[in-house]
Design brief:
2 helices, about 50% strand, about 325 residues, mainly beta, Porin, 14-stranded antiparallel β-barrel
């Protein structure tokens, strides 16, 4: 069954890639993707039927980078998410917000996800849909045109445009492993700022993610995972991947301390990633924190070599399914 599913997933991935022409919008990247899968795939929302999960990740890329002129600055990305199960309908719902700043361009997203979970042997197969709005804002005052009469740069201030955005995903989860694929930006909306020119477009993107839980003993677990993304061909590569391995130690207080390392290949740059964090903090095991440090191994001449990423998660019990009490009387029975 496991072998058959992976074969089907590979065929689906290749099919989606052929539809998208192996091109995609380069969305914000996060090194702690294994704790941020709602951002990648709508099919994961509501998988945990016992809790409502919230999360916040902030990433400061290329810390200390300074633009050649003006204040272009280094990219920074923030994602805020919440998802909850709908037990009666065997499904889940989630909402996430993204704020991504790259020099004069700011991308903002608000996305609503819904997933339906199908029970299978020792696991669940999930199908998810996502719909939302994508906003791109550009500050034209930060550009330096060669031709000051260029109509593309006639705007002196900041303008923005909202466009619709849709995604589709599938996900298989079992106690020892997970694997999923998602296609984002299905509508391929274009940013024109009410002109006849296309400033940017949301190309279809494909994400494939998977991971495995290998229990060494009662306290130690090894968790390898990988993320493959099809990226735009106009940034010199149509494919990027990152692989991570985490070691998790469960203390007597049931706190889970993890640490590990990863590698990202996004030609022409390669990054080495170090991760550290702890889950199940507080008396009710509701809080989790994490940190990731990226170091650019090559291709860092045009950027600073280090990036930093902070994660905060909190969970609270999901509402219990209401069951009507049976009231018996000598005359009536309800």
């Amino acid at each position: 069954m496991k072998k058959l599913f992976f074969q089907i997933l590979l065929l689906v991935s290749l099919f989606f890639a052929s539809l998208s022409g192996a091109q995609a919008q380069q969305d914000a990247q996060f090194s702690q993707y294994m704790f941020n899968q709602q951002y990648l795939n709508p099919a994961v929302v509501g998988l945990d039927t016992n809790y409502i999960h919230t999360g916040l990740i902030f990433r400061q890329q290329w810390l200390g980078y300074k633009a050649t002129f003006d204040d272009g600055g280094a990219p920074s990305s923030t994602v805020l998410s919440i998802n909850a199960p709908i037990k009666r309908a065997k499904s889940g719902i989630g909402l996430h917000l993204v704020y991504d700043v790259i020099g004069p361009v700011t991308n903002t997203e608000i996305q609503l996800s819904y997933a339906y979970h199908i029970p299978i042997k020792n696991g669940r197969f999930s199908i998810g849909l996502r719909a939302g709005m994508y906003n791109q804002s550009t500050d034209f005052s930060k550009f330096r045109p060669v031709d000051r009469d260029d109509p593309l740069l006639s705007n002196a201030g900041r303008i923005n445009q909202f466009v619709p955005d849709f995604s589709l995903g599938v996900y298989l989860s079992k106690p020892t492993y997970f694997v999923g694929a998602s296609m984002n930006h299905l509508s391929q909306s274009e940013i024109s700022y009410a002109t006849s020119f296309t400033f940017a477009s949301l190309k279809q993107s494909l994400n494939v993610v998977g991971g495995y839980n290998w229990a060494i003993n009662e306290n130690i677990t090894i968790m390898p995972s990988a993320l493959v993304r099809f990226l735009p061909s106009d940034i010199s590569n149509t494919l990027s991947y990152e692989a991570t391995i985490l070691g998790n130690y469960e203390t007597k207080a049931r706190n889970n301390i993890y640490f590990g390392f990863g590698f990202r290949d996004l030609a022409p740059t390669n990054d080495l990633i170090f991760l550290l964090g702890i889950n199940n903090l507080l008396k009710d095991n509701s809080l989790s924190i994490g940190y990731a440090f990226d170091y650019v191994l090559n291709g860092s001449t045009a950027k600073a070599p280090t990036s930093h990423e902070f994660r905060l998660g909190y969970r609270l019990p999901a509402p219990k399914r209401y069951e009507r009490n049976i009231i018996r009387t000598p005359r009536f029975r309800f």
